[in-house]
Amino acid sequence: NVPFTDLLSEGAPCTLRPPDELHACMLATNVPLEALSAPSGGTVVSSCGSGMTACIVGLALHQLGLPLDRWSVYDGSWAEWGAREDTPVATGRATPASRL
Q1: Scanning 48, 93, 95, 100, which has its CA 20 to 30 A from the CA of 13?
Q2: Nearest CA-CA partner of 19 in 32, 40, 33
Q3: Burial of 66 (0-12, 13-18, 19+ CB in 10 A)
Q4: Per residue in 56-65, pLDDT tens?
Q5: 14, 25, 48, 55: the active-site residue
């Protein structure tokens, strides 16, 4: 879980943090940047409440080297997923098995 607000500068104008700060933020939340950036790395699908702020996470990942063709946003996000009764919902802390 990477809160989009952690990726933005404080004050006006609000911009993405510098790459070294983005990198530190991703590492602090256990995002496997090196594995994702590798040629054989996985893909990332970001989501949020409605799909809007998930784009900030994707932009930050792109700034850190993740190719755009390996990132997408689930634009329905939680508003769509959580409204359905046939979709699974995980709660609690993520375990290593549930990560990339």
Answers
A1: 48
A2: 33
A3: buried
A4: 998 999 899 8
A5: 48
